[in-house]
Design goal:
The complex is a heterodimer of chains A (263) and B (569).
Chain A lengths: L4 H8 L8 E4 L1 H15 L3 H16 L4 H13 L3 E2 L2 E6 L2 E6 L4 E2 L1 H16 L5 E8 L2 H10 L6 E7 L5 E7 L2 E5 L3 H4 L5 E7 L11 E5 H11 L1 E4 H12 L7 H6 L10
Chain B lengths: L15 H4 L2 H4 L9 H11 L3 E9 L5 E8 L4 E8 L18 E7 L4 H8 L14 E9 L1 H12 L6 H7 L1 E9 L9 H4 L10 H26 L8 H6 L1 E6 L3 H7 L1 H19 L6 H19 L6 H24 L5 H12 L2 H13 L2 H4 L20 H11 L1 H4 L11 E5 L6 E5 L14 H12 L8 H7 L4 H9 L19 H12 L2 E5 L5 E5 L33
Parallel strand pairs in B: 6-7
Antiparallel strand pairs in B: 1-2, 2-3, 3-4, 4-5, 5-6, 7-11, 8-9, 10-11
Classes of the chains: A alpha+beta (263), B alpha+beta (569).
């Protein structure tokens, strides 16, 4: 099953907020998103982290299916790189591409979360910079999933319209600033700046929305996670790449039970 | 056989390398910690009230019915849709498209709008779409060889042949019970904090219990429709003896692999219970008499367990002999100090794996006061996160300490990786293929824990032991999943199946039996190495008996020898 450009463009448009949606359970996000990543070419463990990051984006009120598309397409088409380099210079850590491609957020997210987990124990201010990454939001999801209760972590990246998206995570609360929800889910790679244990951000209050991860999770458990139908179809198209086509032999001998059971 | 410390609180736990082998897992039996046993105990102690809210079925038994289970704080409802299907549509496989009955298990009491919404979805099963108000989705088919016989008998005013009841043991057979967020149903997290749902699979177990009720109501209803005034209802003793069947295939195996913490907690609870019983210093005359009565019932139960599978039947014959030997041993053995430990050691020395596990089940059965509370410890908390700061040297030590069983296989040998497990495009049916002659191995499920650990250990050979896991995973992200698994191993000694699941000759049905035993099923009836039929709730109290606090346990039911008073023979 192919994944069309048309579908991709339709679902990542920032203004597509009124498109039909379907509520997914968190278990479905785990099951389908993990394997969608595998369908795009990632190993299973990376897929699991991708699904978890996607769940945390849902807790933040963002559509995880729409957010997933740039990263899945980038990986599936070989446009995003999976080889990462990590260099430390003074107080700063730089994560770059080892193959000259845009960084795949599926791979960069877990690497950043691991590094922040290690660095957060020091209680010091640390700065990290990622080179161009295909979907900065997934890095936000990966960091949120790592749950550093004691640390303040600020992530920011430039938007295409000249603005800047910023997300600050502290104590289970996310402060999100961006011109609009559409922009924050827009396609296009960006470098990402991350500050661990830095000073509180100075984003103008009128541009900020504050969300509790716990409340978001509770909402998702009670009602499911609304995802755009077209984006969901694309995620499922990647998922389907993990399935083995059936044959007469596999149908007859590969599973339990007979083909009819009237006894 | 001495008892070194009369007051010791616990005996040694059986070792994971003993318990978590496929051969041993494939000899598992239910215990009083099993999930359906826990559910029935809770419903009885809390005096749940079970109620049939709706029964709109035509004379042939097709329509909708709703059953409610009222607990102390909440009500749960089973919504059943019964259908007419052609015989050629009736299959136990995942790939089935039609069933005699389909079910949604509802959180609360459904209103008419819910029932109509689900009428358009529940019969479609995997193709339907559900909400967080639905906790499970299930389906069942009639056992045609028994259902028709019972209908004919009741319609003619007589009870069915007890021998035929015993031969099958159920009127309907479930072929799937989906929970935990499948197809839009509620996530486990929605109910995990509720006391009545905290234990594993309690929603699924209650679903199945209510389906059993429907199957009995259904056979009575159809018999009345056919026989009119002549018809009689199924005698209560016969109805109680009937369970609900289940056909289980490969889908259960990936679940066990994916949840090592949960599986560890199941087995740890069972093994702790066994150790506690073994540590008891003596047995009173009443306890001895109670055990002998239990053993006698168990012997009759096993005597009535007959299957077509030659290998399993041979094991059953062996078990019958072993239980006879156990009865002889008890004459003197139960009067010594630490009698239960002595019994365990005797079984370990003299019995097959099947006999040993059955003896363990008996030992737990007799000692509810020291066993039952462990049921509260069989759930799993949120999974631990990967520890990126662990040194590679520590990671290597964990592998060497806990995964020696995985490192002895040469995975370059074709027979060591003969099988691969996968999801088929056909309704995601889980299947097993031959890696060397079938396509699709590149899409296999990640269940090859032994091979993956071996690969990680090999990778670590040339790594600087002082580096951190995070460093490794930047270079080699493909190890991310298996690194996490290795890291939790020291705290989850029973979390791994200690065999190579890819190897030629492995029997997936062993994994299924292990899980089904924890559910509480009986009468394992393997149909191949890939699937089995079983019986659930056979002998369990009927709905109207739940709240009357009579006999509290119902294990090892035997064929009813007589009808309840007043019934028509």
């Amino acid at each position: 099953m192919g994944v069309s450009d048309q579908t991709r463009e339709a679902v990542v448009r920032g203004d597509a907020v009124s498109d039909p949606t379907t509520p997914l359970s968190l278990n479905e996000i785990d099951f389908y998103f993990t394997r969608a990543a595998v369908g795009a070419g990632a190993p299973f463990g990376i897929g699991e982290d991708f699904a978890e990051a996607s769940r945390y984006l849902a807790y933040l009120g963002l559509d995880p299916a729409r957010a997933a598309l740039p990263a899945l397409h980038g990986l599936g088409r070989g446009q995003s790189g999976t080889s990462l380099t990590l260099r430390t210079a003074g107080d700063a850590i730089h994560v770059g591409s080892g193959d000259g491609l845009v960084l795949s957020a599926l791979y960069a997210g877990p690497v950043i979360a691991d590094r922040l987990s290690i660095e957060s124990g020091c209680g010091m201010e640390r700065r990290l910079r990622l080179d161009d990454t295909d979907q900065p939001l997934l890095v936000v999801g990966a960091v949120a999933a790592a749950s550093f209760d004691a640390a303040r972590i600020a992530l920011s990246w430039p938007l295409r319209n000249g603005g800047r998206a910023a997300v600050e995570l502290s104590g289970g609360i996310a402060t999100i600033a961006g011109p609009c929800a559409g922009d924050i889910a827009s396609p296009g790679s960006s470098p990402i700046d991350i500050v661990l244990n830095g000073a509180a951000s100075e984003i103008a209050p009128e541009r900020v929305s504050t969300r509790s991860l716990a409340d978001g999770r509770s909402r998702a458990v009670r009602h499911g996670v609304d995802v755009d139908d077209a984006a969901r179809a694309t995620v499922l198209a990647f998922f389907n790449k993990c399935l083995v086509p059936t044959t007469d032999r596999s149908r007859d001998a590969g599973a339990g039970a007979g083909l009819t059971d009237n006894d | 056989m001495g008892c070194p410390d009369e007051h010791r609180a616990i005996a040694p736990l059986r070792a994971p390398e003993h318990v978590m082998r496929l051969e041993r897992m494939g000899a598992s039996f239910q215990t009083r910690l099993s999930f359906m046993r826990q559910l029935i105990r809770r419903m009885r102690s809390e005096r749940w009230r079970l109620e049939r809210l709706r029964f709109d079925l035509d004379a042939a038994g097709h329509g909708v019915a709703v059953y409610a289970a009222h607990g102390p704080q909440r009500t749960y409802s089973l919504i059943a849709y019964t259908h007419e299907i052609a015989p050629e549509q009736r299959t136990d496989r995942v790939i089935a498209e039609a069933w005699d009955a389909t079910f949604s298990f509802f959180d609360g009491v459904p209103d008419d709008a819910d029932i109509e919404r689900l009428r358009a979805n529940t019969p479609r099963q995997e193709s339907g779409r559900f909400r967080s108000s639905e906790l499970t989705l299930a389906r069942a088919n009639k056992s045609m060889r028994l259902f028709e016989h019972v209908v004919e008998s009741l319609a003619a005013g007589r009870q069915p042949d007890a021998a035929r009841l015993a031969d099958v043991g159920y009127l309907m057979r479930t072929t799937a019970v989906y929970g935990s967020g499948k197809f839009g149903c509620a996530d486990r997290a929605k109910i995990a904090d509720r006391p009545e749902m905290r234990g594993p699979f309690q929603a699924e177990m209650l679903t199945v219990y209510l389906i059993r009720w429907l199957s009995i109501d259904l056979v009575n209803h159809v018999a009345r429709g056919r026989g009119g005034a002549r018809a009689v209802d199924l005698d209560a003793n016969y109805a109680r003896y009937l369970g609900i069947g289940n056909a289980t295939g490969l889908g259960m195996a990936p679940f066990l692999i994916k949840h090592p913490i949960l599986i560890n907690n199941w087995v740890l609870a069972r093994e702790t219970a066994l150790a506690r019983v073994r540590a008891l210093p003596s047995a009173t005359a009443g306890q001895i008499a109670g055990f002998m009565a239990l053993l006698g019932r168990a012997r009759r139960f096993v005597g009535e367990w007959n299957v077509d599978d030659e290998a399993q039947m041979k094991r059953i014959h062996g078990l019958r002999l072993e239980l006879g030997a156990l009865e002889s041993w008890c004459q003197a053995g139960l009067h010594r100090s630490c009698p239960w430990d002595a019994m365990h050691l005797y079984a370990e020395q003299a019995f097959s794996a099947e006999g040993q596990e059955f003896t363990a089940s008996l030992l737990l059965e007799q000692h509810g006061p020291v066993v039952d509370a462990l049921g509260d410890e069989m759930s799993a908390p949120e999974p631990l996160r990967l520890r990126p700061d662990m040194s590679l040297g520590e990671l290597r030590r964990i592998i060497d300490t806990h995964y020696g069983w995985a490192l002895t296989t040469d995975y370059s040998r074709p027979e060591a990786v003969q099988r691969f497990w996968y999801y088929s495009q056909e309704k995601l049916e889980p299947r097993v293929g031959d890696r060397h002659s079938e396509p699709g191995a590149d899409l296999e499920m990640p269940i090859a824990i032994a091979r993956e650990v071996s690969g990680l250990r090999h990778r670590l050979l040339n790594c600087d032991a002082s580096l951190e896991v995070a460093d490794l995973l930047v270079e080699a992200p493909e190890y991310r999943s298996i690194v996490w698994r290795v890291q939790i191993a020291p705290n989850c000694p029973y979390g791994e199946i200690r065999d190579n699941l890819l190897g030629a000759g492995q029997r997936p049905v062993d994994i299924l039996r292990f899980k089904l035993a924890f559910f509480g099923v009986s009468k394992f009836d393997p149909k191949s190495d890939l699937w089995t039929r079983v019986n659930m709730y056979q002998g369990a109290p009927l709905p109207h008996e739940i709240a009357d606090r009579r006999e509290t346990e119902w294990v090892f039911p035997t064929r009813p020898g007589r009808l309840s008073s007043g019934a028509t023979p």
